[in-house]
Amino acid sequence: LILTFDYAMIFLCSLRVNLDMGKAAYGWMIMKDDNIPGTVVRTSTIPEELGRLVYLLTDKTGTLTQNEMIFKRLHLGTVSYGTDTMDEIQTHIINSYSQVHSQNSGSSMSATPSRKAQWSAPKVRKSVSSRIHEAVKAIALCHNVTPVYESRAGVSGETEYAEVDQDFSDENRTYQASSPDEVALVQWTESVGLTLVSRDLTSMQLKTPGGHILTYYILQIFPFTSESKRMGIIVRDESSGEITFYMKGADVAMSTIVQYNDWLEEELVTEFKNGLTFFTVQLYHTKLTKSGFVFVQSRYNQAKLSIHDRNLKVAAVVESLEREMELLCLTGVEDQLQADVRPTLEMLRNAGIKIWMLTGDKLETATCIAKSSHLVSRTQDIHIFRPVSTRGEAHLELNAFRRKHDCALVISGDSLEVCLKYYEHEFVELACQCPAVVCCRCSPTQKAHIVKLLQHHTGKRTCAIGDGGNDVSMIQAADCGIGIEGKEGKQASLAADFSITQFKHIGRLLMVHGRNSYKRSASLGQFVMHRGLIISTMQAVFSSVFYFASVPLYQGFLMVGYATIYTMFPVFSLVLDQDVKPEMALLYPELYKDLTKGRSLSFKTFLIWVLISIYQGGILMYGALLLFESEFVHVVAISFTALILTELLMVALTIRTWHWLMVVAEFLSLGCYVASLAFLNEYFGIGRVSFGAFLDVAFITTVTFLWKVSAITVVSCLPLYILKYLKRKFSPPSYSKLTS
User: Fold this and answer.
1) Of 134, 509, 523, 649, which residue is 20 to 30 A from 300 by alpha carbon distance?
2) DSSP readout, 653-682?
3) Residue 603 above 70 pLDDT?
4) What is the fold, at CATH topology level, of the domain defined by 55-64+338-500?
């Protein structure tokens, strides 16, 4: 019993070594895959976790999108301009400003009369031209963007004359702002001819297509806040003295302050239904008199100096300016999706992986991206969780959500906090039934908390993917963390278990490498256990025959060789095995669902391999004792030879797809065993009474020895081959239908 236990412990240690070596091999294969270049495996302990994920929690900006804003649409009500018609806007701007400056150079008239002269043209033409003129000017003025010029001297140059050394050419100009969509708007106005060339605290200058400089004085700025969802600016034209209040903001915040029109609501509904990736921004303006501005300015300064209810008083002053504003245009700025995001999300969804998007952006933006990326299908219902702040409101909203079926959930971070505080179990249970969940305005702490909730309430494997420092807590809390090297730095990729360069690589990482790593580790682990249990069973049978005498069956180098050169190469070659080709795994992601059920490695499969080991160990030992009763002195050579052949045949039985290295490993191990018979003959005996007395070369080359060893091996392996054939014929696995 002690010897049997020692054998089992030796091969359990071998199991750990083989699995660690296998995981290192999986990581090497992932990093060498040319289809996912730049992928880095930062841990060698959990590659098989990629093969049984159920929940994928992803960031939005920089993960699903490129974090690059591009101006896509300008809608004026009667006419809409897209990317293919922007040259028409450029033509209007060039003609408009050329007429203004030509009239100014021919007379002493100011800019305002010039525009009036321009508007005296035929009505249809002046309507479109003037509206484009005002819309583009509003976009160029209503923002917080600052143009920046690099110094010629560079970083090492003298800073005393930095302003003199600056290059003010268009090629050297870049824009800086807190929001990339504002930069996209200013870059678009530059592309159509109206360029922001300088800005300070009190003024900004625009350059027209003709090279003339227009100066506007900044009288007041009303910054963007998460509550108001809009920003405003009051400017005065230096040439005309005209004071104008411009405002822009999200559609939900601006729709109530606009003058009546019959196209705004219809256009917004159309964009939302089509799932466009546009961040809709509306621009308004209203004219102010000098006295009116002075009055507003005094009220605004008093409100800012108030001790009590300062925010409410400031908001009241701004709202007094927002009455009956004229809608100038509707703009669409697109945060481009990363390459192949839609097919990748579709693949993951077909694989049975539930996707949750956790973002810090506003609800409208998150919903728009969810629809455009097909995280939420266009035909699928969306339940937008109303803002709740009390337990009663959360209870009512949960009841309303419970009555809906097969709909995606969109919820804000504040409402999520309230629901988790009072109804944690109920909310998680309902959310897990949704095909997709979008959580907006989430803090990094909330993202990590959601990951831990899913792990605690479902017990399923989770994966988190992000690209910024605010995603690190979520990535580290998940069972498997994936970081993307993006524009926000390498914090996420360095903190993650796996680092990729594009979101689309996650499809191959999970469907191919995750599947293979899990399947291979399951086969390798179970086979190493079988290798240890079969020799332990043989030792137990041998000891029982000799009245439990403490005599080892195999000694010295035989045990070392059995665990290494005789069986190591074929067994470890299982890390090259695959049930389906990578192309097939990507084409049929439904195969991934079987992995999440855990059928490849479970108590059932473990017990099956234990029974196989006991059966084969018993057959090998009892067969050697029965068939070689008259040549009992050769029982070690007989049983050990049959054991090696059985192991090699069992490896062949386990392999699903042959690789040329597997064939080499089989014949190499067999050759090493045959070659070792010449110089390990003293170990093929019981008790080792005298050197070289227990291996008769003439005996092992006889036909009797060969057919009896073959008979023992066939009896131990043939039933398993028959059972495997019958199982594949009457209950084939899902992948076998595709390979056939």
Assistant:
1) 134
2) HH-SS--HHHHHHHHHHHHHHHHHTTT-GG
3) yes
4) Rossmann fold (3.40.50)
The mean pLDDT of the chain is 81
- pTM of the model as a whole: 0.77
Of the listed 6, 20, 33, 59, which one is catalytic? 59
Query: Is 33 among the residues known to form the active site?
Result: no
Residue 446: Cβ-neighbour burial (10 angstroms; 0-12, 13-18, 19+) = buried
Neighbour tally for 163: CB within 10 Å: 9
For residue 480, the tally of other CB atoms under 10 A from its CB is 26
For 379-416, what is each residue's pLDDT tens digit?
778 888 888 888 888 899 899 888 888 889 999 888 99
Q: 83 with 72: CB under 8 angstroms? A: yes
Rg (CA), the chain: 37
Annotated binding site: 59-61, 182, 224, 248, 359-361, 441, 447, 467, 470-471
Strand pairing report for 173-176 and 146-149:
antiparallel
CA 427 to chain centre: 24
Q: What are the boundaries of each domain within the chain?
A: 1-39+508-737, 55-64+338-500, 67-84+128-147+170-335
**DSSP strand E in 323-413: where?**
326-337, 354-358, 382-384, 408-412
Mean pLDDT of 71-99: 85
Question: Residue ranges for the binding site for ATP?
Answer: 59-61, 182, 224, 248, 359-361, 441, 447, 470-471
State the pairing for strand pair 230-237/243-250: antiparallel
Q: In CATH, which of 3.40.1110.10, 3.30.1330.10, 3.40.630.30, 3.30.429.10 is domain 67-84+128-147+170-335?
A: 3.40.1110.10
**Rounded CA separation 694/44 (Å):** 45
User: β-pairing, 55-58 with 213-222?
Assistant: unpaired
The angle formed by the CA atoms of residues 7, 22 and 13, to the nearest 5 degrees, is: 20
Binding-site residues from annotation for Mg(2+): 59, 61, 467, 471
Alpha carbon distance, N-terminus to C-terminus of the chain: 47
SS3 426: helix
Cα 376 to chain centroid distance, Å, stands at 16
Residue at token pair 């067999």: 670
pLDDT of residue 715: 92
Q: Which residue type is seen at 483? A: G
Burial 553-562 (b: 16+ CB within 10 A, else e): bbbeebbebb
Q: Which two tokens stand for residue 570?
A: 């074929």
Q: Is 597 helix (H, G, I), strand (E, B) or coil?
A: coil
Q: Summarize pLDDT for 306-315 with one digit per residue, the tens.
A: 888 888 888 8
